[in-house]
Amino acid sequence: MADLRKVSGMAFAAVILTLTPLTWPVAVAQCPSPAAHGARRIPAFFDQGRVLAAPVTANGDTLFFILDSGGGFNAIDAAVLSRFGLTPMVRGSGSDTMSVVPFPSSIDSMQLPRPRAGFPGPGYLAASTLFDQLARMYPVKLTGFLGGGWWADRVWRIDYPAGKLWLFPRSVLPTNGSTLGPHEVRVTFRSVDGRRPTNFARFRAEVDGDSLDLLFDTGATTQFTDGAMAIVHDGRPAGRGGSFISSEIFDRWHARHPDWRVIPQGEVGTRAPMIEVPSMRLGGYTLGPVWWEERGSTGFHKLMDGLMDHPIQGSLGGAAFRHLAVTIDYVAGVACFDAPVN
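The structure assignment produced for this chain is given below.
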């Protein structure tokens, strides 16, 4: 859950070279190969464990859409509508209204597929004024936001170490009832009468010997305070991919492991505490260390539990995924993980 500049192709390349190492580790091939399955690459910009779609329009503008599998809506910055010749339509009534626009026709669907599900509906975007609040967390000017409904019914490979996003034409992972491989995990969704009213994926990971139910959250974003940066001191920017955990699990970790580093007011805005988990297990791999931000349990469960097929304890994002290539099959309900090697 993400807590939204007009640049030329050359400027975009300069940004990439500034923020990205010139060489990347490659992933051990445990999951289906994009080349072998006819997957096509979606232009994307990876930044500190976060992934943004980066389509280029016919006139050479590079756009940046946050890709947030834990987000509940699809949106575009209201300030850029005139660039696309879009006029907002008002949906709803009374105080419950929203301005919406069709997905811009000038964005090639081969570069950026239209959303199939999610609010405000297939092929539409909400016109939002919230993007300025998120701007400080990202090094590029944001154009839009695509949530769980955009990811829905598709099959993806998100290769964080290589900085590549792939879209498969069909399901590539085992169907329900099949035996899973050593680096595969089930992902499940809320279902009502055989349909998914939401498209938030739940999966399990192990921390401190406990198996936790977590939201698959590519958009999880945090911004460390200056005080937190002085403690973490890892040479990375303050704005980065995060992971969130409920208060009861946070307190359990802290009680069991007083030696684990804790920053009492580590996150900008929320002033939420943070805890460093030295290692965790995901898809057969040991990862870490991973910083987690506390999310108050009452609000966390009230917000998410009704949207999931089962209550969750937190959401896992780029704080951990940045070490992996993740293939997630929304059709089959399975995710596969590849670990990078140098």
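Interim note for the steering committee: Helices lie at 9-19, 131-134, 148-151, 226-232, 247-256, 297-304, 318-321. The longest strand covers residues 96-102.
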